[in-house]
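Local shape tokens

___
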Amino acid sequence: MKRVALVLVAIITLFPVYAQRKNFTYKFYGFVRGDLFYNTRANMAPVDGNFYLYPLDKNPDANGEDLNATPNGSFYTFTSRLGIDVTGPNIGTAKTSAKLETDFGGFSGSTTMLRIRQAYVNLDWGKSSVLIGQTWHPLFGAVMPDILNLSTGAPFQPFNRQPQIRYQYNVKGWKLTASALWQLQYLSSGPKGMSEDYIKNSCVPEFYVGADYVSHGWLMGAGVHLISLKPRTSSEWQDKTYKVNERMTALSYEAHFKYTGKNYTFAAKSLMAACLDHTALLGGYGVSSINPENGEQEYTPFRHSTTWINFTYGKKWKPALFVGYTKNMGTGKSLVEPTKVYGMGLNIDQLLSANVNLSYNLPHWQIGLEYCPSIAWYGSNDPGTGKVKDTHSVTNHRILGLVMYYF
């Protein structure tokens, strides 16, 4: 009798665990990635040079020699990735799922510590779904370049993952998206440098609304993005501290399309971007006026026109071509000073990059080689328009070798 009682206790103890897990599925995925690269000069390239963006301006020494005209290169594997997809029991009529994804390519000086890439739960009712957690920014979207560089087309293609609440509705080939987003790892610029305080103190998340249409190999869509920051809550003015109420609000617009044929794809995206430097695009804002009584500032966003196109062909052997172009369109209001600006690449008038690559693809394997020339036209900001004048060009040539094993 005692043995039977022990068996019953064990069954009762284990049953809740079994009942909880029997309707779950788990799928691990990821890859081991090695990047070998070489550049002919210094560049804006976070993640120890892996996340290539654009060449840095000339930096003359005492003899006029350019300190940035120095080759560099290395080999890294810390962008290797591990993730898990989970599906769980339904909640009413909603299918539930979750994702947790990580790698070592973080936002600190260490490349030996894990960081969160994606972490979210999703409720799917078929026609509509709600996602809560961190995943790709909607400006990254369903259309992105197919290239070998880790930057995936940045600074022409928005690249960002943020905590968000996202609602999507699907009907007859249409997908409507509305998202509210906060910042965590990819941060806006401001008086204190890059910080999440600007949107945290704003109490207004980023907003995005957009629509996509899919039919017979075509994917077409457009969207609108709003960001509203509070650069400062206090001002140091004439040896006194004042509480101030400052805000910088900007709208961005994007359109994209992709056509997928039997053995090829053609994709493109165009943006009129404002203050999207936290998505790895050129952009930011400047001070347009200062209150002489307490130092309170008003701001004006920079506008950047950005476009990229991408063509790929083949499956096993896959050549690809990518071209990206960005133009600084200036500010809507005059700047108080050309130096009182916050953002990335605001002294670049134009940026042009191309990627030519060839990859060999097998099940679980990708081996590729890529060549990327980039030209940036640097100058000084005109205080009246915010545009860049008196430009000169600098060029970088980047060669990348890639080996990836998927699982």
Summary: The chain is about 5% helix and 55% strand. The first helix runs from residue 2 to 21. The domain at 2-406 is CATH 2.40.160.10 (Porin).
